[in-house]
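User: Hi! Is it possible to get a structure for several chains at once, not just one? Here's what I have:
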Amino acid sequence: MRLGLVIDLDTCVGCHACAVACKEWNTSGTTGALTDYHPYGAQPSGVWFNRIRHFELGDYPHNKTINFPMSCMHCENAECVTVCPTGASYKRAEDGIVLVDQNKCMGCNYCSWACPYGARELDRASGTMKKCTLCVDRIYDMEIPEEERQPACVLTCPAHARMFGDFDDPESPVSRAVRERGGYELMPELNYQPSNKYLPPRPTRPIPTEHLRKRGIRQVKDWIHQAVTR
Amino acid sequence: MADQVTVFEDHKNQRIEYSTCYMCACRCGIKVTVENDNVRFIQGNRNHPTNQGVLCAKGSSGIMKQNSPAKLHQPLLRKPGTARGAGEFVPISWEKALDMLTARLQHIRSTNPDKLAFFTGRDQMQALTGLWAQQFGTLNWAAHGGFCSVNMAAGGLYMMPFAFWEFGDPDWDRTKYFMLWGVAEDHASNPIKIALEKLKRRGAKFVAINPARTGYQAIADEWVAIKPGTDGLLALSMVHVLLERELFDWDFLVRYTNAPFLIIDAPGSSDHGLFWRNAAGHPQVWDMCTQNFADGMEAGANPSLSLLDKHITPDGRTVRTVMSLMIEKYLDASYAPEQVSKITGVPAETIERLALEMAQVAFEETIEIPCEWTDWTGRKHDKFIGRPVSMYAMRGVSAHSNGFQSARAIHLLQILLGTIDCPGGFCAKPPYPKPVPPPIKPAQHSAPNQPLSSSPLGYPTGPEDLVIDEQGNPKRIDKAFSWETPLSIQGLLHMVITNAHNYDPYRIDTLILFMANMAWNSSMNTVEIQKMLMAKDPEDGEYRIPFIVVSDAYHSEMVNFSDLVLPDTTYLERYDTLSMLDRPISETDAVCDSIRHPILKANRDVRAWQEVLVDLAGRLQFPAFVHENGEKRYQDYKDFIVNYQKEPGIGFLSGWRGKNGDQHLRGEPNPRQWEAYIDHQSFFQHHLPLNIRYFRFVNQAYLDFAVEAAYIPKAEPMFIEIYSEPLQRFRLAGEGVYDGPRPTQPADRERLVKYFDPLPFWYEPLEQQRVSAEEYPFFAVNQRPMMMYHSWDSQNAWLRQIIAQNFLYMNRERGEHLGIADKSWVWVESHNGKIRVQVKLIEGCQEDTVWTWNAIGKQSGAWALSPDAPEAARGFLMNHLISELLPEKTGERRLTNSDPITGQAAWYDLRVRIYPAAPGEEGTWPTFPTIKPLPDEPRPVDRLRYHTHPPVNLKS
Amino acid sequence: MHPALAVIFLTLFSGGGFGLMALTALVNDFQIDGGLNPLQTMIALIISMAFVSIGLLSSTAHLANPKNAWRAFTRWRTSWLAREGVFAVMYYPFAFLYLVWVFFTGGTHDAIGLILANLAAIIGLITIFCQGMIYAVLRTMRQWNTPLVPANFYAMGLAIGATWLAAIQQITTGQPDPALIGIAAALLVATGVLKGIYYFWISRPGGPTIRTATGFNRFSVRILDQGHTFGTFLTEEFGHRLPPAKAKSIKILMYLIAIILPLALLAIALWGQVAALAVLAALLVLTGFGVERWLFFIEAQHVVNLYHGRQQC
Ligand SMILES: Nc1nc2c(c(=O)[nH]1)N[C@H]1C(S)=C(S)[C@@H](COP(=O)(O)OP(=O)(O)OC[C@H]3O[C@@H](n4cnc5c(=O)[nH]c(N)nc54)[C@H](O)[C@@H]3O)O[C@H]1N2
Ligand SMILES: Nc1nc2c(c(=O)[nH]1)N[C@H]1C(S)=C(S)[C@@H](COP(=O)(O)OP(=O)(O)OC[C@H]3O[C@@H](n4cnc5c(=O)[nH]c(N)nc54)[C@H](O)[C@@H]3O)O[C@H]1N2
Ligand code: SF4
Ligand code: SF4
Ligand code: SF4
Ligand code: SF4
Ligand code: SF4
Ligand SMILES: [Mo]
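Assistant: Yes, the chains can be modeled jointly so their relative placement is included. Here is the combined structure:
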């Protein structure tokens, strides 16, 4: 199995719901608590696994805004794991999920240097590295109703711009979406082979108006009066 | 799977509860996991009609709202001897607080009930607060609609059987072309997001009309960068294009609208522009087959649209159809795309193409749903025909002083295309459709110790329905239903403090505010409003607004300016109803309402406001709340909701009625109704069978159903009023020829004549008419950030990490041209004041517009934030620039900066000029004094590590 | 990158320490200018071990959870950081035994002495390589992802070692040693050249762009909002940058302190027979390379910055 996410850039409205739901689930999750620093102070910040960035393409008036959620890509070629000296970072053979064993991590930050996607954040309170767990404690928890055994971010996304599934199964919804919509990876040149894929905006359907134009402008007196019974 | 045996977290100490979110007015269903009385997780309820399992950022951060250090702890009284606004409070017991308030209110009620002004903000319980005000007997009640989006409600409800806002939705599952006008987030925030994805998946086209490109507009197939305040004109130009090519739904106009009705053409006479009615009072039409006049309200005629002809009636009157007036008006060259392009900034080619695209989809990509249904004439149909073009519009249109007419212009476009309440079109949500306008009139008189004869709010249909005295002066403190804003069907919350301060029209005694942050983001002209709240009368040394009572749950800016603070519970701690008598959570295809119930026990000395209202109603002996012998009729809010009946069988909640809980919509009170709701995940949903899902305004089976459910009084068709007779009546009054009340002041007369056009039209927003565009070259508007709800989310530890400072967003090229650098500080100046803010240059901004995120700026010290919080030090409010009054004109009284028809606050009419701040000039300006912490307010923590159990670490 | 003092000290001092060890072994192996006497050898060894210890200790200060530091050796099969740890620790027994051996026997270049010396030196050199590779394997930072990095690490470690050895030699004898000074000068020049090549290399554009980072290759791409008002771990760790003009002047300063001045001082020391100048040169080299380390970190641009608005196209 190769589990991961597909993010649909055609429908992501940039609402940050997935980021907050992730925070909410995971602060009591397997690597919680996710510390917040100065939560009510001058420079609030904290540990998050999922962050939404916003970009603009092109120049006004031919510009488009793209909302861009990013979390761990659960790379096939997870250098973050390779470089970890303690063995705290590991990639599960059975499903490809990349995790950090909080009991082993020494907080050297090295894995975060190796991650191109900014998926790892050090928790200064616990001194350990934390990252998206692909909600391993939701997707495998048999006490959670089956249809909810999904990552918190996927469950919550109002624009259904997030899909979760197995990329090794060519018929899974994620594989199909990637195939049909031209799903792509970020920074392929680095060869991390991220599992997560991004779906580009769909092309717009052209709507024919030529025949209506040809019809031309009519004088009111030429209108065809229709008898309609009220 | 490999991990099937792993134990992740212990669910034994957890329980699941279903309720309704309160982080905004969308009211999504939530599934809450509670662990040892702390919230483990809040997720969307998959079965809930509104959100179908999803949840937004605000909803998902409910934990941090519940955890907020800004929560109020106990009732507070302004410390005797200290000044209002100084922020000195002493705790007071609930008993003492309520005794004190009861005595005060009793005195007011027995002398002059209008001396109580009771106004509520973004609440979700107007059915209760309205009933309370009516029973108290004060005319001075309204909720927040007047400063929010009354233009959408009124614009729709005076034309159609339903409206934008919470009254209707596109048929998301079927529409093929969707046009979104001026919406950043809306009250249907999750439903719109769910829907946009559906649209895109189905390959429908999504066009967004908005000066800014973020959020929803980001994913639009086409972005139309319009100049603010010109939407009405854009819509009417598309009307022009459609009419010019005879692209409209002829049948729809004849059958369902008043387009064929005959209008009296007699300028100068008192019935000019009114319908030519028969003895039964019905408007008449010209029958093409019989070549004679016929009753427009009866089935069977073949009305002519008559285009340009005039008819002479037997009694010698000249009459013409509404359609002929439309033709004359909209085919005028001033609506041609080339002309309109200059004002709207939208290229002529685009205007024409969009109109034609919609015609193509409406008329050539029609959908049919096989289904037998019968219309009001008894005619049987074997299918619903759908014209799958739909639209939705909100505050980008409504928050302008021409928003009422602009909303109508957009509806007109939909009406021409025949996309009203049809498959793929714009559909009503029960209890709508309702007659045009809904048949409720505002109460006009108050008397000591007497309930009002009807609700303080209603729908005037002519000058005689205004709430004015014999001299024509306003009787309400907000001047609603006066000549200044006759159709202010939701009051003018934004005028209350100014008018009360000015004793205009009179001095009030007590102001009760529930859930409205009027000292800050919810007032225009914040600096002045704070002064007014603190102002004293030079003669008696009393405050000009003598007593201010605030119900809030958190330490908002408004709390700081109150005399008595009544602390509310949070949404996880109280009972609540989202009732059919109010604005329920219905879907277009289902009747729905819902509740909240206490999931957590409040750990503070707080009481739900609804409990306080029911308690006060008993203490004050409101007839509807006490037995003959004066004993309280309802023990508490829960009891009230179960047993109160508006009419036999109709109460606040429509599910599980009847003694045994087996009746829906109508039925006797069920003593176990709350339990039934809680058992059913806190909501009730009644699906409409297919045959009453469309064309409901003329669908006989639906009309019968709606009468049974008490949504409408009579099973009569509800025609669309393209031409509005009520508007014409006011116009006649302005012209001085109306047969009834007429205004005396020239300003009122002029406004009635100018703006009360019975057909939708466009005019330049009022403030802009008085402010030079050369001097103030930019339009300045706001957007809702998706992850923040007005002022109240800055206390949320998670959300404020996403946004704790707002910028002034500006078109990059334009900014660079003006020598303004990205992230630099600039001065922004309006006719009313100036602010210093930080700029961000972006692409997604119309070049003459600047915008910012709404309500991020905070007063230092409020919301339990540290005084140097960026919300106060670097964030800002646009409100300091906006005035609640129009720029002064000599010889004229000061007029409200609102739509002249509805009184909708014109937040987005603002024009500004912008110039770089001097080197070293940094930080937001103006600054305000730091608000003092309340007694008991916890010190902000440095680190927060919220969790409900120790982590179950997975081993590598 | 955040130029954390702990990491700067780690690579600077441990590199210098290993360099000093390597040169000590080299000089004694080949008895260059008669080799070092036991005292000089012992001083060199003590300084070498002190430097390595300073480096390693300061690196633990960099750990957020040092109680797990002992686990850092476990993944030596894959992690250069683990390997560095393993080798750094292995260096101690050999260096220490050599010290003991020289102390008790005076045998700076007898068989046992040389075996110990060379083992310590080789392990040290391997550690420098591991250290370089810690950075060089990271494809996330173009400025590091090059063989020039381990090459530079070697050049610098050895140059520090050589200048310090020259200084030790001079202090203990009061006489400048042309051979040692020559080695030091040569290594300094080599380091300068290598560093120059490195700076030239990093000045050319390369690596992922904001376009490949987002996948929009046919448009201009600009950040609108990074999604948080204040810093995060990522911006604090990676969000540092140096304006090019400032970088240039600091580099000139660095060349001056680390290479040009020491070369001049060494020359004066050689001709003027002023021992103290060699010490000053050694101190300057260390300081100058400290600045170089700082530049090495602050100039490294992590690709994640592309997601925070770095406008590389
Ligand atoms: N997240 C979140 N959701 C909310 C709220 C909140 O505070 N936060 N508030 C709730 C409330 S009370 C309300 S009233 C609703 C309002 O919901 P919206 O109607 O979405 O209101 P605004 O955010 O004011 O959005 C106005 C939009 O219109 C655009 N605009 C401004 N002027 C014009 C114009 O002249 N023409 C056009 N076409 N566009 C224009 C602005 O750029 C902006 O995108 O949202 C509700 N939902
Ligand atoms: N410049 C500008 N100003 C605007 C707008 C704009 O677009 N631009 N939009 C306007 C619009 S549409 C609106 S609706 C208003 C916002 O309307 P408001 O209703 O004033 O919104 P809030 O600022 O959220 O204030 C609500 C108050 O309710 C309190 N509250 C929260 N929860 C509870 C509770 O459970 N019980 C009680 N009793 N109180 C509670 C909060 O603490 C806060 O003080 O802002 C208006 N102001
Ligand atoms: S995204 Fe980063 S943390 Fe996640 S697997 Fe890839 S390299 Fe590792
Ligand atoms: S921070 Fe923790 S997980 Fe990351 S490399 Fe260091 S020890 Fe491994
Ligand atoms: S999969 Fe889970 S941990 Fe990962 S981003 Fe989504 S919610 Fe967060
Ligand atoms: S929740 Fe969905 S729409 Fe919102 S930011 Fe995340 S991915 Fe985008
Ligand atoms: S849209 Fe968000 S805040 Fe509003 S009710 Fe739904 S979940 Fe709650
Ligand atoms: Mo609103």
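Residues B 24-25, 122, 148-149, 181-187, 189, 209-212, 226, 228-229, 231, 394-397, 400, 781-784, 786, 788-790, 851, 908 surround MGD (ligand 1) (CB under 6 Å). The longest strand of chain B covers residues 834-842.

User: Great, thank you!
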